[in-house]
Amino acid sequence: MIRSRETPRFVEAVLAWPPTATIARLALVGAYLLGALVKASDFPGAVAEQAHFGMTPPAFWAVLTIAVEIVGPLLILTRRWLWLGAGMLGVFTLLAALKANAFWTMAAGHDRFMATNAFFEHIGLIGGFVLVALLDRREHAA
Question: How many structural domains is the chain composed of?
């Protein structure tokens, strides 16, 4: 089999299509927007979630979470201060992963397995935020 370093034409076409970058940014931040809408539509549930994780005062943390889950994605989608939106969501995601998925404190078993997977999925999202900020920076520098 001959291996080629060239990108296949269909991949080039998808990457060159102008909406691809916007769709990719929406895919990256969509869960945060949905989370904000769910929390805002059920604020008592959002407060209970914060209380469950030991955040006090829970109402303050619920409002802050909703704000970050709205503002961060909007900055990324509009590409205005994209670096700030990516940073906001990256820090938020790291803190949430540390608080909600502390697998290292759990006994071996299914719950630890699930928390470990969720923790490293969150780390992957953080990598995505760094990459989207790097790509935006490169595009503006060119």
Answer: 1
* 24 located within any domain: yes
Contact 50, 107 (CB under 8 A): no
Query: How far apart are alpha carbons 23 and 28 in whole angstroms?
Result: 9
- Does residue 5 belong to any structural domain of this protein? no
Q: What is the pTM of this model?
A: 0.89
Going by C-alpha positions, the residue among 75, 2, 3 that lies closest to residue 32 is 75
Kindly state the average pLDDT of the residues 59-84: 98
The Cα-based distances of 140 to 4, 79, 135 in angstroms read: 30, 11, 9
Q: Which residues contact 84 (CB under 8 A, 6 or more apart)?
A: 75
Q: What is the token pair recorded at 136?
A: 């935006």
Residue 97 belongs to domain spanning: 10-141
Q: Which residues contact 33 (CB under 8 A, 6 or more apart)?
A: 69, 70, 73
Q: At what angle do helices 58-78 and 19-41 cross, to 10 degrees?
A: 160
Separation between Cα atoms, residue 18 and residue 9, nearest integer Å: 16
Which tens digit of pLDDT belongs to each residue from 129-138? Answer: 999 999 999 9
